[in-house]
Amino acid sequence: MVEGEPNTYREAVSSSEGPQWKEAIRNEIDSILQNHTWELVDLPPGCKPLGYRWIFKRKMKTDGSIDKYKARLVIKGFRQKEGLDYFDTYSPVTRITSIRLVLAIAALRNLEVHQMDVKTAFLNGDLEEEIYMEQPEGFSAPGQEGKVCKLVKSLYGLKQAPKQWHQKFDHVMIDNGFKINECDKCVYFKDTNEGYVILCLYVDDMLIIGSNDKIIKATKSMLKARFDMKDMGLADVILGVKIIRTQEGLVLSQSHYVDKILEKFNSGDTSVARTPVDTSQHLKKNKGDGVAQLEYSRIIGSLMYLMTCTRPDLAYAVSRLSRYTSNPCADHWKAITRVLRYIRYTRDYGLHYTRQPAVIEGYTDANWISDNKDSKSTSGYVFTLGGAAIAWKSSKQTVIARSTMESEFIALDKSGEEAEWLRQFVEDIPRWPKPLPAICVHCDSQSAIGRAQSLMYNGRSRHMRRRHNTIRQLLSTGVITIDYVRSTDNIADPFTKGLSRELVETSSRGMGLKPLVNGNMRET
Predict the structure, then answer these.
(1) Which of 198, 184, 173 is nearest to 105 (CA)?
(2) Beta strands at 520-521 and 195-202: parallel, antiparallel or unpaired
């Protein structure tokens, strides 16, 4: 049995795993010295050096075994003063939607997906402010014990470290002929006569998708020349999501994360549920004492990450149950236990991206005031590419709809926003067919479609004129088209309410959500 990680330097080196931790500490110090992160100087009068702390972590594989021991020197950046020690701190990260979209494109074009990791990303940022730090344990400078470290480059823990790293990476990519996707500042692309390459960056993890091996190798060589990189070969796991290759394309799965959730929160239960929501149960706010609020919020957080990455079928259940996180009662616990039983039943579900269709399609739906205790409706949408979902959302509407048509129209407006973003994103994808076709958004409300396509303006619709103008503009500029779909064929239906067993399975297949057994697709 593996014990917990040590909390201090002395505790690490004196533990039973001391040799492993000492090697990890040496690797960290070597990286810092090779990077010329600091220089030893006398402390100027009136300055106070920042402290530091060693952080020790075992990096685990998806099967639960130890991958490596990692030691990180972290400066106590919480003592920094704004306007003196730092100014701007913002740093973007790529959206999970962007990652799914790029992987769907890789499946469509049968491209290889490679992965690289920056070993010490934040140490690469050039520091503009003057910051001093105490000499750390494990770093010995004979005869200079009284000096302090003047930081030349950023260090983990500094408030501006993420911003400085991203700024440095931006400059390197642009200097080497890459362009930045206007819709996601962490997606880079390069198109040459020899081929094209797309790179997604999430802090220090990156996916590299190229049209051929030559341009992928050239990109890797360029990055290795500028940063201390770890080449991980073909992508296997990104942000806790498994990338599985099949004959038909790619599958994104989190079955190992489902196991972790069930082991942590539902280990004593072996029951399963065929649907995530009990349609006969009506939830309401708890006015009494809460039941295990902290545990409830932990489960919601875990389910939310699972839903956000690969499980659109959980979107409505998680959205609904998260509204009661502050004060859950027994009914809420019954509902969340059902969700845990459902993910046990659907453990092997993953998003299956295939070679077709090569067009983005959208589905939108709304459920008008299903709860007599709540006056606001629920919106939902999902977009697919390559046979599986790339973007989805289920949320309570922020305004009160006065009719079913209006609630559907609000949902159509929100899906139009996402459609516009997706269309602008693929505009920067190399070799994407031009001119771009309009994204077809399927809606099951003929009255909402009629209102969107109508030029008429009267007093009955004056309260929604802004949404009407937005949708009319998207239609007139060719960003979207709107098409009618029957409610039974609308795969956005499970984003607005609980459904029967058959409809849940049908909509899941429509979103490309199927189990993976022995590397082959199997219908539910």
Answers:
(1) 198
(2) unpaired
